[in-house]
Write a structure and sequence with these properties.
By secondary structure, the chain is of the alpha/beta class. The radius of gyration is 20 Å and the shape is globular. The longest helix is centred in the first third of the chain and has 31 residues. The chain has a nine-stranded mixed sheet with strand order 6-5-4-3-2-1-7-8-9, sandwiched between helices. The protein is 45% helix and 12% strand. α1 packs across α10. β4, α5 and β5 form a beta-alpha-beta unit. The structure holds iron/sulfur cluster (2 copies). The site of one iron/sulfur cluster has 12 residues, from loops.
Length: 379
């Protein structure tokens, strides 16, 4: 038993190193070129085994998209140069061929991510996800005990978190939420503490309305949100620019350019490209006919929904582009914001390296110019 635990821990470390190297490649590609999708969400099944009352992304009847069609869509995304493919839903674990979809994503060189409500996780299922090559899993927990809004509860899912902590070789993030449908905002803290105690990553999100738009947080939710906001140490999350989070929590607009349709794609169960889960129908072009010209045109479109948008994964891709366009300013603002919250804040390794390269001294600035040239980004 001890031997098996030791082997699992070694495998977990090796996979973590491999994942970080592939993340570094994703980052370098995002810096080198604005012309490919950084992240795509793909829906293999619209059906869900739950029915959260705030959700507009599921139904109770849809059949799974056939495997050959899903594999074709993964290939099409890879041909566009997509670096991260996230499988969402509905509940993607209802798809009978999920492992094959993950294998294809990895086989085409992209990072493979899964968003699930966790209900169907078992030890055996987690081991299969390991074997398929899953890189990240995100599980969202809405409350401590089930209520009429959501059954995604710590009470039900705690055992699943324990199984993930024990068996998963992929990175696991537990997302708790705040916002008006959440009855007890203190639940978010309980969920985050439990996730961290199990060695899992925790994040907190804000529930949006049916158009992906912000509902300002009530004062008690806001106080808890501030407490829970912690700089995430993962590399891709370094792009989780603090200004966005602070404004969202206070109900203030953000000034940013949403590049959905270019840097982020949402592929629905019918194989159409949409800006995001909350802006479906735009542009609504079949993925099979989506070209580089479409990527460029849609990325450039000004989206009127941007100022009060809460779709954080699209904001994260936009922050990578901000960094590509102006690395020094982004680093200075990001670190200052984190030190404001925590004077002892020490940047994670990647952020530390970037800071060393871009900020500190004239010699290092010369190195930074060299690095930017190697990455083909603008100095
Ligand atoms: S589990 Fe997820 S997809 Fe299913 S209803 Fe709830 S929020 Fe929607
Ligand atoms: S700003 Fe972009 S990500 Fe946000 S809701 Fe609009 S299209 Fe979607």
């Amino acid at each position: 038993m001890r031997w098996e635990q030791y082997r699992r821990s070694v495998r977990r470390r090796l996979r973590s190193v491999d994942r970080r190297l592939r993340e570094a490649r994703m980052f370098a590609r995002a810096m080198a070129s604005p012309g490919h999708p950084i992240l795509a969400h793909i829906v293999p099944i619209r059906r869900c085994n739950l029915a959260c009352t705030y959700c507009n992304e599921f139904d109770a009847v849809s059949a799974p998209v056939p495997l050959p069609e899903m594999l074709r869509r993964v290939d099409l995304l890879a041909a566009l140069g997509t670096t991260i493919i996230t499988i969402s839903g509905g509940e993607p674990m209802l798809h009978p061929d999920l492992d094959e979809i993950i294998r294809r994503i990895r086989g085409r060189g992209a990072l493979a991510t899964l968003i699930t409500n966790g209900y169907l996780l078992t030890a055996e299922r987690i081991l299969r996800l390991n074997r398929a090559g899953l890189d990240y899993l995100q599980i969202s927990i809405d409350n401590v005990t089930p209520d009429e809004t959501s059954k995604k509860s710590l009470k039900v899912l705690d055992r699943k978190l324990e199984l993930l902590a024990e068996y998963a070789e992929f990175s696991v993030t537990v997302n708790s939420v705040l916002g008006s449908p959440v009855r007890n905002p203190h639940d978010a803290g309980t969920i985050a503490r439990r996730a961290r105690a199990l060695g899992l990553t925790s994040t907190v999100g804000i529930l949006h309305d049916g158009d992906g738009q912000l509902r300002p947080l009530a004062p008690d939710h806001l106080a808890i949100y501030r407490d829970l906001l912690e700089p995430d140490q993962k590399m891709f999350a370094f792009a989780q620019y603090d200004r966005f989070q602070r404004n969202i929590a206070q109900g203030l607009p953000n000034r940013w350019h949403c590049r959905a349709g270019g840097r982020f794609l949402y592929i629905c169960e019918d194989g159409l490209v949409h800006y995001c889960s909350q802006q479906r129908g735009r542009p609504g072009i079949p993925l099979a006919r989506y070209t580089r010209a479409d990527l460029e045109r849609e990325a450039a479109v000004e989206k009127s929904c941007a100022p009060f948008c809460t779709v954080s994964c699209v904001q994260q891709t936009a922050m990578l582009d901000s960094f590509r366009e102006n690395p020094r300013q982004v680093l200075v603002e990001m670190i200052a914001a984190r030190r404001e919250r925590n004077p002892q804040y020490r940047p994670p390794v990647l952020l530390g390296a970037l800071t060393w390269m871009f900020l500190d001294s004239p010699v290092k600035r010369t190195l930074s110019r060299l690095a930017l040239r190697l990455l083909r980004a603008r100095p």
